[in-house]
Design goal:
homodimer; alpha+beta; 2-methylcitrate dehydratase PrpD; 2 domains; two-stranded antiparallel ribbon; 8 strands
Chain lengths: 477, 477
């Protein structure tokens, strides 16, 4: 079993702990497995915005801004259009916005569609310890909910942090075993985050929150088998829809199990071969998983980012052109081939799951944006010719945010590059300015520049807004 | 591992095979695991009503009648009222009926609510080989769909048989390992049945059907941990909702995996520790799982039925009263305690998962209908006093439709009863008249008797109806 947790790096863990923990750690909480769900529910119900340290709240606003940008960037995607076309005959009242679009629909379907938009470009945030994309399930659900009932910016931020905490802690408890089995953790653990955040905004009692988590446990979404198809982006959307449904039902006392996470036939036992409940129950309120969130500079699977980063650096350093190159050799972390090992992608979407295409296009075009993952880019003969000369070697000594690249030129020269921390990883994070530039690029052609600017400002200032729904309005076409 | 498949009994298997198979068996179909999903999709897309033998179609109409009755019986349940109250603010246009009620809603939510109604009393049909309740996911989805687009009775029946075939074959492929892990197979395999049947009515191509099955695979519903709570009945409802959603998306070419069932990260590998793909791909069109469907005489977990049957027989034979009885000893199949082992149920719903309550109430009240699983019945001191004198011994030699009951009287006499096949099992099936009586009892107080009679007639004559939606109208209040 590979220890993917080391990806975070000791320095980051120390850093985030410094952000969040008070100076005197309290006594260790003993968590008998039988109370896992209730302990978590109790924390969610009791959690206050004032308890959340300022740097954590700041990271939440970065997560929010990155997510809104990704929804806008994905909002015009074919998958989103198809989902709306297929399901709109069944939409309820126009209660909530589809960001980046003119349509409005009921809260549940808005959560579904915005969740699809947010993930369809594979450009959204990543909790690197679990490869979970935390914002999609949580924010898709609570932003739609905030358009249906009044929610202050502070309450929104609090619910968001608690929702992300819930899904990531549950993810931590079962990662990597759960992911290795084949589950898409963003949909399977994400549904808990949506239920928790929505339940918080609905003012659930502890018992109702226990039931909401249980109703979430009954509705996991997504297998890794669907990667490379439109269904991957359906997963966070449906997780948002399911979690919101769970919270609505629990709010009316639709009963469910009291031990849905930890019971013998509960979520953690059924959906994972290993589990560590202390990841869920210990240090609640002392550490914040959202502090570990990261944002992608490239719209594709995060395990390819070191390769793209390194190939672009080599191209620029040596002013490389494809015809100079004899072959490209990549030494990569095992997960790279498992997730992005498509040798001959046929579509732009498949290209996002091909480290071979990523390396080739980065060298050919000096970029790896949405255009570089179009159908045309994937079929470009210059790119495919170079792609066929890219080879990979799995090396367990290489970490997930690393790569060792060797380019052999036709003149016999050998160029090497070791990427220690890919751009966008927690150790080399995107700055606020980087995030704004990413947002602006995604909003281009979707919203007028002044409106995009206003949406960004609302993200940064969410905590002071009297009504969080203003953000949804600003991000709608 | 217990071989639960023997529950069906050799005679029944022979019988159903005789019903369905042509005289000359064709050569065995070789099914490489890589084509499982496509082979199944191809069969569903090509399946014609004319291919289905008359006795199979008859069994389908029995399944339909039993299911409509169960929806009516469950339609006034508290769980259904809560679900409607919680979700109706988000309902879409009034396209489809909530059976037994006056409300109408969009097709997807009608499927959800009717699915909850159909299972909330634990009185619906059972495919004994997998303990799957086939009608709920399939019929909830296609009856709602038939109100949205014109569907002839013949097409409805065909889609129903194919949907049940799909979910039960997938269930067969992973049972009992999948169920033993903790999944509620009615929601996890049922979602495929709903997708297949709806996809059939939507006229999906083979590729679209492959995607519909894959979108279903991404949305399994339900853990056994939720048994004894309202969420158990949510499972078939949500499976109907999810399968219908899958079919609608696939119909618009929302892409998904081509190998969702059999791939390394596919449904059968991720959700089960064992699998036999031949159960899915062999003898398609030659055998029909719906021929093995069974209908409950008592509204509770089927594994308690032999006990109820035997206790009622002993009570009648010896005119027993509770005060005569010193103790009741049950020798039961292992699954009985696993599923219905609650010693001290506190609510009527919990009583449905207590073989101790079932034995006691059957002796005290000479019946085991919905009234015998009310909160009042479970708390009746006469019942609880006798319940505390019921003990169980697990005996692997006892089959699932059997029980060995020994009642010791205070005067020292010992009365024994061995139930070889419980009433309602495939070996002792309910007659058409039994099913009508069950339907009428469930419809009482929900529909006028003449309307209930009309709904039953439509079930029996579905195949000849020009428009299957007439049944939904007849079964609405």
């Amino acid at each position: 079993m590979i220890d993917r947790r080391r990806f975070i790096g000791a320095s980051v863990l120390a850093g985030s702990s410094a952000l969040a923990a008070p100076p005197d750690p309290p006594a260790k909480i003993l968590a008998p497995p039988k109370d896992v769900t209730r302990i978590l529910a109790s924390y969610i119900v009791g959690g206050q915005l004032a308890d959340i340290p300022a740097p954590v709240r700041k990271e939440a606003s970065r997560t929010l801004l990155n997510w809104v940008g990704c929804v806008l960037g994905g909002s015009q995607n074919e998958a989103v259009g198809i989902a709306i076309s297929a399901l709109s005959p069944f939409f309820g009242p126009a209660q909530a916005s589809l960001l980046g679009r003119k349509e409005r629909t009921d809260v549940l379907n808005a959560a579904l569609i915005n969740g699809i938009s947010s993930h369809v470009l594979d450009f959204d945030d990543t909790h690197l310890r679990t490869v979970l994309h935390p914002a999609g399930p949580v924010l898709s659900a609570i932003l739609a909910l905030a358009e249906y009932q009044p929610v202050s910016g502070g309450d929104f931020l609090n619910a968001m942090v608690l929702g992300v905490e819930t899904e990531c802690r549950i993810g931590n408890a079962v990662y990597p075993a759960h992911y290795d089995v084949g589950w898409h953790i963003t949909g399977t653990a994400g549904v808990f985050g949506a239920a928790a955040a929505c339940g918080k905004l609905l003012g659930l009692s502890e018992q109702q929150m226990v039931w909401a988590l249980s109703l979430a446990a009954a509705q996991p979404v997504g297998l890794r088998e669907m990667f490379g198809t439109m269904t991957k982006s359906f997963h966070p959307g449906r997780a948002a829809h399911n979690g919101l449904t769970a919270a609505f039902l629990a709010a009316k006392n639709f009963t469910s199990s009291d031990h849905a996470i930890e019971a013998k036939s509960g979520w953690a036992n059924v959906l994972s071969t290993q589990r560590d409940y202390a990841e869920i129950t210990e240090k609640l309120g002392r550490t914040y998983e959202i502090s570990l969130n990261s944002y992608k500079p490239f719209p594709c699977g995060i395990v390819m980012h070191p390769t793209i980063d390194g190939c672009i650096q080599l191209r620029r350093q040596y002013q490389l052109t494809p015809d100079q190159i004899d072959r490209v050799e990549l030494r990569v972390h095992p997960l790279v081939l498992e997730l992005t090992g498509k040798k001959t992608p046929q579509t732009g979407l498949e290209g996002k799951f091909s480290v071979y295409h990523a390396a080739a296009i980065a060298i050919v075009e000096d970029a790896a944006g949405e255009q570089q993952f179009s159908d045309m880019a994937v079929r470009n003969p210059v790119v495919t010719a170079l792609r066929d000369r890219v080879s990979t070697v799995v090396d367990p000594a290489i970490k997930e945010d690393q790569v060792r690249i060797a380019i052999t030129l036709k003149d016999g020269r050998r160029l090497e590059k070791f990427i220690e921390h890919a751009v966008g990883s927690v150790d080399a994070p995107m700055s606020d300015q980087d995030l704004e530039a990413k947002f602006a690029a995604q909003a281009e052609g979707v919203l007028p520049a002044t409106q995009a600017r206003r949406a960004m400002d609302l993200c940064w200032n969410l905590e002071t807004l009297p009504d969080a729904a203003a953000l949804a309005e600003a991000a709608s076409a």
